[in-house]
Amino acid sequence: MYFGLSEEQKSLEENINRFLADNAPLDTIKAVAEGDTDKAREVHRGIIDLGLSGLVVPEEYGGLELNMLFATVVSAALGSGTAPVPYVGSYVMAPLAINLAGEENQKNQWLPKIAGGECVIGVGLSEYVGAREDAGIEFVNGKLSGRCLFIVDGKDADAYLLANKSGELYIVDSSNSGIEVIELTTVDKTRTSIELILKDVDAELLPGSTDKSVIEKVLDAGRLMLAADTVGAAQVMLNKSVAYSLERKQFGRLIGSFQAVKHMCAEMAADLEPCHSMIWHAAHCLDNVPEESRLMACQTKAHISEVGKQVSKTATEVHGGMGFTDELGLHYWFKRIGLNRQLLGSPELIREEAGRIQGFDQ
Amino acid sequence: MRNPFDTDDRKSFREMVTKFLETEIWPNVDEWDEAGQYPHEINEKVCELGVFGFGIDEKYGGLGFDDQFMRKDISVEMGRTSAGGLFASVGSRNIMLGPLSELANEDIKLKALPDLLSGKKGGSLGITEPGGGSDVAQMKTVAHKDGNEWVLNGSKTFITGGMQASYFVIGARTGSEGLGGISLFFVEADTPGFTRSAIEKKMGWWSSDTATLYFDDCRIPADNLMGEENKGFYAIMNNFNYERYMMGAQMLGMAKRCFEECIQYSQERKTFGKSLIEHQVIRHKLADMSAKIDAMDAYLNQVAQLMNDGEMPVAEISKIKFFCSECIESIASESMQILGGAGYLRGNAVERIYREVKVMAIGGGSKEIMKDLTVKQLGL
Fold first, then answer.
1. Residue B240 is part of which domain span?
2. What tens-digit pLDDT sequence spans chain B (380 residues)?
3. By Cβ atoms counted within 10 A, which residue in A282, B237, B240, B366 is the most buried?
4. Structural domain range at position A48
């Protein structure tokens, strides 16, 4: 039995990597981080042209109808390039939710637009995952009011997909009145995050989402995508460390010839290598083994968040003072991994959830 | 690292103890451990050094003074021998001498203390039970008053030194549920209704004897109640502090021994055309160990000085216990790694210490209980 990526998956990965290398090199990342929205739009346009916006949208709505394994391949590739584009929220979680829980007219309204790259949907599940005391939304007579934090892909979005505390999902057109958008500043400047304050905003329930399994599936997919993004980013940090250790000299020798540095690289590799398989297995479960998919998504996000933290820390250490400079830009990967760790649940929170799934609280 | 609190008296005491241990104990550790026992006269020889007499009046055979640094030095040096089992058994008297000398009546003290301090007879503390270890509040052994006697029923387990001991200090429930209903009793091994059986096959501490004790309508004189009725737990609390500090110091000794063995081995052993010690990874392991050893040592010294000043810093002693156990877990493991295949063979100190790390993280209050106690003491 062959356990690994297929030729199609590998070729998709290579296409994205090549595109990012050509169109989103470090200088572009730096420019976007400093607020160059034109450059961000260009890169975004490019990934739409690669078909990534329609990756998980069913064919009947104009998408490619590819599975979660393909989606993780894309996510890892975007993480490896610290790509400054919407993806996890807008192009994975939102279409998944709409397809699972939307009525036909809702699917017809949104899915073709997502697939065609004509709309971005910000996804706000924070209030379901673990709301702050003063956050949360309420739906009364077709109108939403309240406050949502850490909306993924929410900046300049055309619509928002928002969850209330019990996991029901609502879709809101961003041009509706009564919406206040507050940009949140996070350490990661390659992706955006916003807060929404809603006052009697017209919204639609995705009717299927009254069944809690919908938000659970959407959350599992989101967590898995973030974990894949971390693996992609961490792999690059390791590759950069090895390359740096083979060019930087200290005490008349390449630092890579010092046993202490070699072992740091070896330990990063040993920690990271199994994470690729873990992602594949979790994605396989999301696609084919529903009874294990929630647990695998939790374990994968929790474990890979820890490995990512360790690798990003060690890789920075290997780079010495240079690791802290903007010139080298290693910090973009470090911070991306840091934000992935917190989004949709920190490892501590997710491990608790994994414990509950396994009945440890009984 | 030099101890800034060291004095000539402490130094000569330490040297006297070390010299004895190096000549009488070090050469025999492997053999005694494999045999699962040590010669009985060792009890007396160790006791002759006066190492258990701190804080006990000379008329009972004690030293008539106390010094926490000397207590520390003994435990460090005992830890360094890697004879964990031997000192667990010989030293089991140490954790019952405190309550005995403070709470027992004069007749008991005059009878038992000289025997225990001279090593003629052994002593053990019996608190842990089959149903509850660190959770002392669950104690099930009961004592009820019948005329001029107390009648004990129940059992105790994991009692170090319990097969050799002639005298015991036993905790039993005399009152309500919880910690407030526990009293302490002086029990002699030849009392009718008292029996014991040996716990065999331990992970480490092979040369020590460990017992399960049984009390079946075991009648003892009313005067054998030690201290106030139902106040027993509070009376032994203080004793736990000394035990835990002592274990911290012993772990420092174990760590020092591992470090010494690693240096010696890595200087002798050659791989890839050079001495092990010339490899950067090994040098860094040694640096890590050395830093941990200094941290343990400095912490123990600081707290010893506070104790000499009359304080009982419970939170710090709890932290010492779990901090040192985490240090020695890592140091013993890395030492095994440095010794490689040679360390895996029985008959060397590092292999034995590696097996005896866990008992230090569990016995005398587990690591988790120590952390709970720490935060509680911090007022959280």
1. 234-377
2. 899 999 999 999 999 999 999 999 999 999 999 999 999 999 999 999 989 999 999 999 999 999 999 999 999 999 999 999 999 999 999 989 999 999 999 999 999 999 999 999 999 999 999 887 767 888 999 999 999 999 999 999 999 999 999 999 999 999 998 888 999 999 999 999 999 999 989 999 999 999 999 999 999 999 999 999 999 888 888 888 999 999 999 999 999 999 999 999 999 999 999 999 999 999 999 999 999 999 999 999 999 999 999 999 999 999 999 999 999 999 999 999 999 999 999 999 999 999 999 999 999 889 999 999 999 999 98
3. A282
4. 7-115
Closest to B242 in 3D by CA, of B193, B186, B337, B313: B313
Structural domain count, chain A: 3
Residue with structure tokens 């000499």?
Answer: B308
Residue A186 maps to which CATH number?
A: 2.40.110.10
Residue A333 belongs to some domain of the structure: yes
List the one residue out of A197, A132, A137 whose CA is nearest residue A167: A137
Q: Could you give the residue numbers annotated as active site of B?
A: 243
Q: How far is A299 from chain B (nearest CA, A)?
A: 25
Burial class of residue B27, CB neighbours in 10 A (0-12, 13-18, 19+): exposed
**Do residue B146 and residue B110 come from a single domain?**
no
What's at A279, amino acid-wise?
I
Alpha carbon of B276: minimum distance to chain A alpha carbons (Å): 12
Coil, helix or strand for B215?
Answer: strand
Q: Are A232 and A80 in contact (CB under 8 A)?
A: yes
Q: Is A2 within the bounds of a domain?
A: no
Token digits of residue B92? 């089991």
Give ipTM to 2 decimals: 0.72
Q: Are residues B242 and B226 in the same domain?
A: no
> Which has the closest alpha carbon to A223: A89, A74, A77?
A89
Nearest chain A residue (CA) to B283: A260
Q: How many CB pairs under 8 A join A and B?
A: 8
Q: Are residues A322 and A223 in the same domain?
A: yes
* Cross-strand partners of B143: B152
Q: What is the DSSP letter of B292?
A: H
User: Which residue in chain A is spatially nearest to B278 when comparing CA positions?
Assistant: A259
CATH number for A24: 1.10.540.10
Same domain, A132 and A258: no
Please check whether residues A224 and A202 belong to one and the same domain.
no
A260–B281: do the CB atoms touch at under 8 Å?
yes
Tell me the C-alpha distance between A296 and A252, whole Å.
48
C-alpha dist (Å) from residue B20 to A41, B46, B81, B333: 80, 8, 11, 29
Residue in chain A closest to B284 (alpha carbons) equals: A260
Report yes or no: B368 and B362 within 8 Å, Cβ to Cβ: no
Look at A260 and B284 and tell me if their CB atoms are within 8 Å: yes
Same domain, A192 and A178: yes
CATH number of domain containing B356: 1.20.140.10
Is the domain of A231 the same as that of A140? no
**Please, where are the H alpha helices in chain B?**
8-20, 29-35, 41-48, 68-81, 84-90, 94-103, 106-118, 232-268, 280-308, 314-344, 349-355, 357-362, 367-377
Query: At a CB cut-off of 8 Å and minimum separation 6, what does A213 contact?
Result: none
Domains contained in chain B, number = 3
Q: Is residue A163 domain-shared with residue A72, that is, in the same domain?
A: no
Residue A340 token pair: 């992935």
- Give the end of a domain, one of A176, A209, A242: A209
Pair B225, B322 in one domain: no
Residues B244 and B176 occupy one common structural domain: no
Give the side-chain half-sphere CA count within 13 A for B21. Answer: 22
User: Within the 248-287 window of chain A, which residues sit less than 8 Å (CB to CB) from chain B?
Assistant: 258-260, 263
Instruction: Return the CATH number at A256.
Output: 1.20.140.10
The total of other beta-carbon atoms located within 10 Å of residue A342's CB is 16
